[in-house]
Amino acid sequence: MGLGNKISNAMSTFGIMPGKLALSVRGLPRFIRDCRRYARAGRASPMPYRLRAIKPVLSDYYDSAGTASGHYFHQDIWAAQQIFRARPTRHVDIGSRVDGFAAHVLTFMNIEVIDIRPMASQVRGLSFIQSDATHLNNIADNSIESLSSLHAIEHFGLGRYTDPIDPMACYKAMAAMARVLQPGGRLYFGTPVGRQRVEFNSQRIFSPTDLLTRFPGLKLASFACVNDAGHFDDTKQPADLENANYSCGLYEFTK
């Protein structure tokens, strides 16, 4: 890794996005020109230009209409579509994005979300339980018909979200998910896969084949992935991603 990339990664760690900063600097002259044009053209408009009310957004000049790629985009759609087809009577989620996956599911059924972080919500159909999901102690064996955990398990035990430091927490949580899934039930599980490593305290990247051994009593029903390029691929098997850098394995397990 070159010096430039190292500096960029270090800045990103502290919330400074070098790419966006560069685009903002590049967009400043255009913003100033647009201000002048609007001020001249908008004198008689109901909302004339006011210097005290400006709120510059300088990098959007160079954005696309959206991003239809990446781990979260594809995994959230994949899991929601699987659940829609299965039509369970109850679905429980552990730690997935509420503004992505849970929102998709809420368009066709209720969802119960468990997360160690607090959340205030009045959204109809969304039930929230603040809890450490490492052991799922409050959930009985063989009791959950439909369960998901998407891009969450890689953080367990790293302390990033105030959870206790525990190098084995992720594996304990996987075993707990297997325990609570009912016979014939479905677990939709997504996490970073590739060359196995921990990037403390951000995340883990798991061996995609090792994960197959971490859910006692469950068998793989289907597999897909989001590859290193950010594209969805349902033609691969876990072993095909052993040497990936940062892909997302999408596992559908059943008991």
Helix content: 25-40%
* Model regions low in confidence, pLDDT < 50 over at least 5 residues: none
Question: Mind telling me the CATH class of the largest domain?
Answer: Alpha Beta
What is the CATH third-level topology name of the largest domain? Rossmann fold
Number of DSSP strands?
10
The name of the CATH superfamily of the largest domain reads Vaccinia Virus protein VP39
Radius of gyration: 22 Å
Distance between the termini: 44 Å
Largest sheet: 8 strands, mixed
CATH architecture of the largest domain: 3-Layer(aba) Sandwich
Mean pLDDT: 92
Which assembly state applies to the chains in this document? Answer: single chain
- Share of residues in strands: 15-25%
List the helices and strands in order.
Answer: HHHEHEEEHEEEEEE
Strands of the largest sheet, in order across it? 3-2-1-4-5-10-8-9
- Structural category is alpha/beta
Descriptive keywords:
about 260 residues; two-stranded antiparallel sheet; alpha/beta; 8-stranded mixed beta sheet; single chain; about 30% helix; Rossmann fold; 2 domains; 5 helices; 10 strands
Can you describe this structure?
The chain is an alpha/beta fold. It is 28% helix and 22% strand. The chain folds into 2 domains: 3-62, no CATH class; 71-254, Rossmann fold, CATH 3.40.50.150. The chain has an 8-stranded mixed sheet with strand order 3-2-1-4-5-10-8-9. It has a two-stranded antiparallel ribbon with strand order 6-7. Helix 4 links the parallel strand 1 (92-94) and strand 2. Helix 3 runs parallel beside helix 4. The chain is elongated. It starts with a helix and ends with a strand. The mean pLDDT is 92.
